[in-house]
């Protein structure tokens, strides 16, 4: 586990709360403007956030319980992978992790798109793997249904394997630029990523040279046992959605945490938080994996200058949307202060979490609060290093993940004297 807290911000439309756009109606227009996302991501970058994830789906917006577009929230979004590639040149150190579905997307396009992002960001690309189970998304591709969970998971495993093979298909030194022989590449250093599966198949190599990280780190959400097994099979970083602790949701001191979901507290954190982490570790053991993956807790947050202010603002958003967001969110919903959230993060770190992925309920209001209020508070608490003191490194290194060694790499031979 990294010796410091990993901090990731999850960016989604006008914010994760369906009524977030009502807090600032101008944001509803900005979500389809690249300049908006550049401003938001650059602020995270300057604050020293480790990575931002960019949500995406094939539908124009979130769906309601009936599978139709939820018109309470902002409809219309930009492609996450393209946004990440576009904002990369304006950033210096933040990891860029777009959500890219494996259900209706060709593995070749996934692989090359993410390789390109890794090149333009100089080694800061990641991939949040996601399946697309809804009938509405399937219909966009001429399919009648989204598929059963087991089939979707099997397809996801195959796509992840193909993408990994394509990423490895070029050796680091495949480009030789040999003027004497007129060869730009050494064909012996480019490999066939041949794979034939039940759902996908590929033949040949990537058309993009091996990127700075070799294989950008893969993130996956593990909200139940099946998802945990899929995450262990496909991902380098696992995201989980533990509940809040205590009947009142209060955690630690410093102003407390106003929480919407509550479960029994054990040692300062919820039983569900311990269980979510244990689920991933059990899946690793069952798979025979020697790798202990960083596990991040997903928390949906609204930050205020006081606990009362935060709770009032969340109540106003819930009233505007017609129902409490806690009933729809898979993650704990916390209305809190920066100091209160630091206490919550410290408790999660104490039981083995590598860090958190924070879902700002309002963007940019809460993403700005994360950058300007939470990060300094974490530094003061000793949970983060001061951003100016931290070197710029690739995303794998920043997350504490070992370098990616190509499956085609030939071990170096010793030199005898």
UniProtKB/TrEMBL annotation:
<dbReference type="InterPro" id="IPR011251">
    <property type="entry name" value="Luciferase-like_dom"/>
</dbReference>
<dbReference type="InterPro" id="IPR051260">
    <property type="entry name" value="Diverse_substr_monoxygenases"/>
</dbReference>
<keyword id="KW-0288">FMN</keyword>
<dbReference type="InterPro" id="IPR036661">
    <property type="entry name" value="Luciferase-like_sf"/>
</dbReference>
<dbReference type="GO" id="GO:0004497">
    <property type="term" value="F:monooxygenase activity"/>
</dbReference>
<keyword id="KW-0503">Monooxygenase</keyword>
<protein>
    <submittedName>
        <fullName>LLM class flavin-dependent oxidoreductase</fullName>
    </submittedName>
</protein>
<keyword id="KW-0560">Oxidoreductase</keyword>
<dbReference type="Pfam" id="PF00296">
    <property type="entry name" value="Bac_luciferase"/>
</dbReference>
<dbReference type="GO" id="GO:0016705">
    <property type="term" value="F:oxidoreductase activity, acting on paired donors, with incorporation or reduction of molecular oxygen"/>
</dbReference>
<keyword id="KW-0285">Flavoprotein</keyword>
<feature type="domain" description="Luciferase-like">
    <location>
        <begin position="26"/>
        <end position="244"/>
    </location>
</feature>
